[in-house]
Model the fold of this input.
Amino acid sequence: MLAGCWQHREGVQSLPIFRKGRVLPGLLGERASFRTRQGVQEGTVMAVADVQLLGELVDCADVAVRAAGQLYLFRCGRPIRDKDVLDRAVEFLAAAEAGGAFMSSGDSANLHATLRPLNWVADARTSGKRRAFSAQPEEIDYEALTQFLRRMQATIAQVSQGNRPDDQAWEECIGFLDCLGETLGTRADQHMRAASIPSSSVASF
Amino acid sequence: MDISLLNRLRTLVVFEVDTFEKQLGRLRSLHYPSGAASSLIDNLVNELRGHRQEINQVLADFPDDPERAGRALRSQHRLLVQKLRYLSSLEDAETVRAPWSLVPSIEWLASALLPDKPLLATCTQSLNYGIRWNPAPKSAVQRFAILELPAIHKTNAFLHVLVGHELFHPILQEFLKSRAADVISRLRTALNPIASQVTKDRFDELVEQVRYIWQRALEELMCDMGCAAIFGPAAVFASAMLHIGGNLDEPPSLEGSFYPPPRYRLREVLRYAFQAPVDEGQQSPDAEPDQSDDKPLPRLARLLSDRGFGWARDVLEKQFKIIQGEVQKQTDLEQVNQYPWLKLAYEEVQGSLPQAWDYVRDKAQSTSTSWLETIEDIPKLLESIGLLVPPGEIRETVGEDSSQLRTRSPSLSAISIAMWLYRLREEEQDAVKAEDNELRRYHRLCRLMLKAFEDVEIRREYDSRKKAAPAS
Done:
């Protein structure tokens, strides 16, 4: 029996997968049964390779947290201290935007080597609304998401040049970066911990 | 966040920075086989200073932005925790833990393949050859690549050929990036009808997951091919030795980090790096070996035969025939083709492989690390091994005068291939002998091989110092 990943609230939790008595590697995204302490439950199998991408997660979370801080402090009248982090935030959002444009229209002109930035941004946008234990994943309007990401980049670029955006754009952008930093940071935290487990759990059956 | 909680969080993070610095001080006093560890320690110390400055800045910003101060400190905490692994890597790089006689050779090979990445070679307590690197380094520490060898096989020189596989990982990004957009584009189209039938997951995640399966498979296959481009048949023998410890048909899975099935990996290496027949019906088990000289294996076989090492030619052909027999079974493909996602990902892999092989072969050739460049050395080294002399030096006559001898170092690949051929002959002879005797002979050959690698590096160091020294 192999372990699979159960899509659960803010992150991914490893639990044994049962599907017709065996594990199928091809069932990414399929509905499957999971044995939990509460009994066998239905869920969606999600193979997020975050374990290998921990460094990237920690870095992106840090960029989002620091960029939000810079935007907020500038709004309070403090000078921009870390312009580099704003540039990195724009770079990340541009990669996510290219992914969104591709998913909505198939336009691969600006597509990067991965859709991961899009995945993470979409996670942040939908966090709190999806990932309830048994809820269906929410449909994403990729076109709307792309438009939103363009707006976020424009706001950050404006601040980066020392200009002041309007209050609504400012609120929206800081709120989004806060949410992105929290979502990615929480996911990174989950992967940096290891649960205490017996060295031979089979013996307890 | 309340100021008292923030202060407690600050204590937590500052304590971590402080302890980190003390640990680095202790690690600095250890002995390492090269200067890589000291350099990494220096860079880590510098980065810790940066963390201290960031922490102070967060506290200075607290009156204006109390809400984000906690988040910023938590982020510093995460960045620090991420760096803790460097401490264990430095412990594992100590001379008493690492295969010290091999480290200079590994570093030399790494400097050829990864000129902009300093390498720290370590031995860890897990049965795995691995490398950790940052594809987009933003600091001096992140430029380091950490190579991990399994400590339990520290003296198993025959397996260390697989270092060649690991060193290819960081140099594939350019190729993978150049192909990814087209692959994602095709996957999006191909997955659309399948996804609507069976998945309720988010479509962008599904496309990314399948792209990731493609990338992981291609990475491993390219590294296998890269290792074969450098170490030739030794790469295949070493891979097979490691793979037969598990299920050759193990399908790609999340738990298995989406490694391709070992049988699939061996098949593609034979197909591309050796142009060997690997598909069913391409070659019957009793067929005569292919003698065309432009292919690597026949070329080596003929060379061995011409230089009086018919036994080595027989071993080479027999062992490759055995592995070809294994890869002609299609059991791994049945596993892959059973699932629509895997099938799609692996169709993309197949489409990428011809250019992937060109890419890694060119890397090996452009860095003068291809085994074919020093193929002529192999029979000469077999002579030394036959006398139980470490094959770390080649003696040649100068011009017509047979009494005038000069010596030079062989390549790492020629040493590895010659040692593997000799070992495989012993393996056949030892098959019916006692286990302790067999293991003793295996250890003896490992020592010969490690000594040869060490001799090559001593000679390299001597030559470079001699070249640098002013003429007397």
Q: What stands out?
A: Chain B touches chain A through 55 residues (CB under 8 Å).
